[in-house]
Task: structure prediction
Amino acid sequence: MSNIRIRIRDNGPIVIETPVTIADAEGNQFTIAADKPVIALCRCGASANKPFCDGAHRNCGFESVVRAAPG
Ligand code: FES
Result:
């Protein structure tokens, strides 16, 4: 079983270590460059390159800070 690390960035995207497969609702896979150590998925809804983050969260007023419950 693989253990993929996923991080939720404050006021930003969801960052996932590669290798990972990202597919749309029909099962079609998005292309991820083999040399990328991580990918970032948009969490704010403002990216022009969904599902990937393009940095638009910095200028759209997106604010979200989540923390896992202790324990
Ligand atoms: S989280 Fe970065 S563009 Fe949406």
